[in-house]
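User: Hey, my collaborator sent me this sequence without any context and asked if I could get a structure. I don't really work with proteins. Can you help?
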Amino acid sequence: MSEFSEVAQASEKLSVVEKVGYSLGDLAANLIFQTLVTFIAFFYTDVYAIPAATASTIIFVAGMAGACFSPVMGLIADRTNTRWGKFRPWILWTAVPFGVITLLTFNTPDLGENGKVIYAFVTYTLLLLVYSANNLPYAALSGVITGDMKERNSMSAYRFVAVMIAQFIIQVLLLPLVLILGGGDKAEGFKNTMTLFSIVGVVFFLITFLTTTERVIPKPEQSSSILQDIKDLLGNKPWIIMLLVTVLVFVTLALKGGSYVYYFEYFVSESHLATFLQDSGFNGAILSLNNLLTSAGLTEFQWPKDTSISGLSVFNGIGIIFMIIGIGFSKFFADRYGKRNTYGVSLLVSTFFVLVFYFFSAESIGLMFASQLLHGFSYGISIPVLWAMIADVADYSEWKNNHRATAIIFAAMLFGLKFGLTIGGSLVAAILAANSYDPEAITQTPQAINGIKLSVSLYSALPFLVAVACLFFYEINKKMELKIEQDLKLRRVSD
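Assistant: No problem. I've predicted the 3D structure and written it out in structure-token form, which is a compact way to encode the shape of the chain:
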């Protein structure tokens, strides 16, 4: 293949099949990832009966191990050479191990107090390691499927619609599925539900491998040492900014997402929530669904009669639906105003609708749901932009240093993601422990309730605000995006 044809390939439009195929990989990963973000603290404290402080320690230590492995995996992936490319084979190789370890993580063997802690730590650590080995090459793949930035924006939109579908399944349907598939036994329900998700995930990973192609191929003379890659990273200001932003964003997502289950269980007025569900037509729709399932003989698949779980499912569902709508506007705004400006404004607006949750009373159900709707839409605009910006950072590195190290760039960002997830997830359990949360209690103390309220509002809003401030120092604006893209195309032709 000539160098000119390589450029042509890198610039060609991607087929819908390839965009959908690529996006299924993130749907698969996020069936697990979103479960970790939203429910791992709840699973450990309320299902596996691990003390909140101990659960916080497990989530933090195992999370740090997984985060630190990401840069190592990036170096490995950048130096992988097969007939399938650098990154695609890792999706194939890790598909089955990912599924198996997921099943082990959400199993609850009776091993005694110390045995349960060891088991949880080992399985959670292994899950995060194999997640790195799978998701880092997957993320890096987005930077080499095409060199065309508009196509990259389009592919990101496809990808994050798939992410939102996974998020919808987890945040809306997971707890009902847990109760349905476990016959009311949450431990059995988690095991059966994650078995289903693992099988689906393995199949989707295989589809991603089979439908994608690596087109941006570094030339042999662009190879570099590990020390050079690290030196280039440390001298890459946009990379440093995006690393900080990634950490902060995922602190918020993990903290906010992990706290909502406690917010609905212990703070939101059950009677007012029940009235809202009735007046909104949700109860009627569920009654019709249950009657349909009964007539089909599927009595074991009845939607559970639990007001807080139903309320949380609707709440999350509304947010995700409007996130998907927001994603639909992402490419338009990014193409028109540049990724940096689009990301910063959407993140700032979404922050406001997180902060206001502290001021709601337990009876303010309508305001809670309206704020979630507006937060979902504004934050949804930012979701594809983050990863497209990280791909731009890889282009910036190649433009500045004349050699490409895609995986190590994405590895650093996944380190940031996991570090943020670790901090946010451990903060959920730590804040509960600091405020005397008792998982055995029917009602919580005012101190515990206030801690839960702070977790979903002020504590979650602060990292978002700091992330917005960081973007003022991010230099890749729309003008520079176009210059980098044009210069790289010319350079690849002339070299």
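In plain terms: Residues 365-401 form the longest helix (37 residues). You can pass these tokens on to your collaborator as they are.
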